[in-house]
Amino acid sequence: AEERPGTVAPWVPEDVYQQVTAAARQVGTAQLKPLFLALGEQVPYDAIRIVVTHLRAKAAGGAVTGRNGDA
């Protein structure tokens, strides 16, 4: 099985993670461009992609813990 990191903190700062999460609640995660636009075109696609992947893994009930590694 592929090991998943419990936190994305090494790649995405906390404030960016929270911004992307809030935008994802508004526009969804089906496509990245609406998120990019909702974030004022200020957050790189790579950061958006990392956060969306983490949110999807958490939603799928994978072995992914909270944002900072806590359950």
How much helix, percentage-wise, in residues?
40-55%
Q: Helix- and strand-based class?
A: mainly alpha
Indicate the radius of gyration in whole angstroms: 12 Å
Basic shape: globular
Largest sheet: none
Low-confidence stretches: none
Q: Span from first to last CA?
A: 20 Å
Give average pLDDT, whole number. 86
Spell out the helices and strands N to C: HHH
Count every helix, treating DSSP H or I runs of 4 or more residues as helices: 3
Strand content: under 5%
| Total strands | 0
Written account of the structure:
With 71 residues, this protein is mostly helical. It has helices at residues 14-27, 32-38, 45-59.
Features:
3 helices, single chain, mainly alpha, 51% helix, 0% strand, 71 residues, globular
Q: Brief overview, please?
A:
By secondary structure, the protein is mainly alpha-helical. The protein is built from three helices and no strands.
Topology, pairings included?
Blueprint: H1 14-27, H2 32-38, H3 45-59
